[in-house]
From TrEMBL:
Family to which this protein belongs: Belongs to the DNA mismatch repair MutL/HexB family.
Residues of the full protein shown: 20 to 353 of 905
Protein name as annotated: DNA mismatch repair protein MutL
Compartments, record wording: Nucleus
Parts forming coiled coils: none
Domain DNA mismatch repair protein S5: 211-330
């Protein structure tokens, strides 16, 4: 059974960046305003996330890494709700099947923090002969989750990965998206032992500050603010796109649907096409776009490694988004 769980977990968590995305979404669900990430060897040796969210009750710690025992999966209806990020209740379980997990957590009401170790979904004693029960320890409100030696027990998965630096780039990509989108939340990401953070945003900064912080000053001067409600199409859009003066070698497309980082290839293609009449050949725009669509019209693939999203009336909405963008671009360049 353990081996089957491990293989299934390797499907859910294919690389360090998937694991981190799940952990970040949990921190966001827990209402955190400060999320700090520490990484070693591209997340293969160590992936650590510290938040200041609600914390986990001591009594929940023994089952928290078992599949589908999550507090968020209360009703079947919740499967269709994307107001919270997590709704499958298998992220922590999966991670604990392919890594050594340590959780230190404290709720507001608890008099102290608790620390627990996990292997294969179950509490594990820190040393032979000791009790596996969570131990009281010092700590502030919030949760720290550490995943060490990712895929230590799944050689095939480990071999399929790119170099630690490539895996780290994927981690930075995930953190970048959430750090830009969630203004009001402070994010940091660094390599373990390093004095400098590779990504840092402050809780008091807005979207443009965050974009400047991560992508530099030049881009922040060429941004056009997007904000409109399309009642006829039942969606809202907001974000920032670059004007025709700015271009990069690679398109940067940060898409959020209902506050989840997702991909939508048809939309991406349409935007590339739109900008092709504005930008020199071979150059690309920066797009940060947040769409709010009636959750009932969105088909979120429940597979965590597939971020591709489909929604109702997709073609019409994509056309409408491009029309709006075209107007914004034309006004900015007029
Ligand atoms: P899901 O998010 O789908 O509920 P997960 O396996 O991702 O399932 O998480 C299991 C449960 O652990 C969550 O429902 C939540 O109650 C708790 N949890 C996980 N991470 C945190 C965190 N950072 N802060 C507070 N609670 C957390
Ligand atoms: Mg989750």
């Amino acid at each position: 059974e353990t081996v089957i769980n491990r293989i299934a977990a390797g499907e859910v968590i294919q690389r360090p960046a998937n694991a981190l995305k799940e952990l970040m979404e949990n921190s966001l669900d827990a209402g955190s305003t400060n999320i700090q990430i520490t990484v070693k060897d591209g997340g293969l040796k160590l992936l650590q996330i510290q938040d200041n969210g609600s914390g986990i009750n001591k009594d929940d710690l023994d089952i928290i890494c078992e599949r589908f025992t999550t507090s968020k999966l209360k009703e079947f209806n919740d499967l269709y709700s994307i107001n919270t990020f997590g709704f499958r209740g298998e992220a922590l379980a999966s991670i604990s099947h392919v890594a050594r997990v340590t959780i230190t957590t404290k709720t507001e009401d608890a008099t102290c923090a608790y620390k627990a170790y996990y292997i294969d979904g179950k509490l594990k004693a820190p040393r032979p002969g000791m009790s596996p029960e969570p131990r009281p320890c010092a700590g502030n409100k919030g949760t720290q989750i550490t995943a060490e030696d990712l895929f230590y027990n799944v050689a095939t998965r480990r071999k399929a990965l790119k170099s630690p630096s490539e895996e780290y780039n994927r981690i930075l990509d995930v953190v970048t998206r959430y750090a830009i989108h969630f203004s009001g939340i402070s994010f940091s990401c660094k390599k373990q032992g390093s004095n400098t953070t590779d990504i840092y945003t402050s809780s008091s900064s807005n979207h443009v500050d965050n974009i400047r912080q991560i992508y530099g000053l030049q881009i922040s001067r060429e941004l056009i603010k997007i904000e409109y409600t399309a009642d006829n199409y039942d969606y809202k859009a907001s974000g920032y796109i670059t004007n025709a003066n700015y271009n990069t070698k690679k398109m940067i497309f940060l898409l959020f649907i209902n506050h989840r980082a997702v991909e939508c290839s048809p939309l991406k293609k349409a935007i590339i096409n739109l900008y092709s009449s504005y930008l020199p050949k071979g150059t690309h725009p920066f797009i940060y776009l947040s769409l709010e669509i009636n959750p009932n019209n969105v088909d979120v693939n429940v597979h965590p490694t597939k971020r591709e999203v489909n929604f109702l009336n997709e073609e019409f909405i994509i056309d409408h988004i491009c029309e709006q963008m075209q107007n914004y671009l034309a006004n900015a360049n007029a």
